[in-house]
Write a structure and sequence with these properties.
It comes from Jeotgalibacillus alimentarius. Belongs to the IS21/IS1162 putative ATP-binding protein family. One of its GO terms (biological process) is DNA replication. GO terms for molecular function: ATP binding. This protein folds into two domains: 61 residues, no CATH class; 164 residues, Rossmann fold, CATH 3.40.50. Helices cover 55% and strands 10% of the residues. The chain is built from twelve helices and five strands. Helix 9 links the parallel strand 3 and strand 4. Helix 1 crosses helix 2. It is elongated, with a radius of gyration of 23 Å. The N and C termini lie far apart (67 Å). About 4% of the residues have low confidence.
Length: 254
């Protein structure tokens, strides 16, 4: 039985192929004009639907990531900075550390590009199909403290807990009280060996205890964050014993 284009479009929509349904008249005209074979026509339909779905998926991942700005690492000026070498940046962009659930800690004073690098790597991850979430430490604390009574906070924290990569910017910029320290620990504990975390901070992990207050919680947080981690210093800094004995992403000759 012959069907009209409108009927076929309705059937495509019933099959949840809405993008193809909208494009079907154009695809039919192209097929007729170019004398496509049946196989070529089917290939064109499936490729169009898959491309549209991937574009929508990318758009959703970008929206959920909540980046404060979008800049590629291609634009990052490596000259004049001492955070990363060209080789190290290239290695990080391969994202093998993310696949292995390593964490990154970017340390150093303001203005050296810590947040830029973190967002740039987050973008690379989004483009590769990973779910990413960016939050400043202040934003994260507000979400954690309001989760019990704000649905918006519940939704955002669910996305954080399900993310492949969580970026926490400006970590330890201010002291935590006991409740905040506990909430932060439980989040880190949940993400441990489920997700990778990128942290930026102008204070080294050895100083975090002074801001968290509770030494037990500090040790528990550090144990989870530093189990598999690369600590990248933006500036000369003597490493502690704990830092020197961590597992590293970069080989010794890098």
């Amino acid at each position: 039985m012959n069907k009209t284009v409108h009927e076929l479009q309705d059937q495509f929509r019933q099959l949840r192929l809405a993008e193809t349904a909208e494009e079907l008249p154009k695809l039919l005209r192209e097929a007729e004009k170019a004398s496509w074979t049946y196989l070529e026509f089917l290939e064109s339909i499936t490729r169009y639907e898959l491309d549209k779905r991937e574009a929508k998926s990318l758009e959703k991942r970008m929206k959920w990531a909540r980046f404060p700005f979008v800049k590629s690492l291609d634009e990052f000026e490596l000259e004049g900075q001492n955070v990363l070498t060209v080789r190290q940046l290239s290695q990080l962009r391969e994202l093998s550390w993310l696949e292995q659930q390593y964490n990154l800690i970017l340390l150093g004073p303001p203005g050296i590009g810590k947040t830029y690098i973190a967002i740039g790597l987050g973008l690379e991850a989004v483009y590769r199909g990973f779910n990413v979430y960016f939050a400043t430490m202040g934003e994260l604390m507000q979400l954690l403290k309001s989760e019990e009574y704000l649905n918006k906070s519940k939704v955002q924290l669910k996305r954080i807990r399900n993310a492949d990569l969580v970026i926490i910017d400006d970590l330890m910029y201010m002291a935590m009280d006991q409740r905040e320290a506990n909430l932060f620990f439980h989040l880190i504990n949940h993400l441990y060996e489920r997700s990778s975390i990128i942290l930026t901070s102008n204070k080294s992990p050895e100083e975090w205890g002074n801001l968290i207050g509770d030494q037990g919680i500090t040790t528990a947080i550090l144990d989870r964050l530093l189990h598999r981690v690369e600590v990248i210093h933006g500036g000369e800094e003597e490493e502690s014993h704990r830092m020197k004995n961590r597992k590293s992403i970069f080989s010794a000759e890098v």
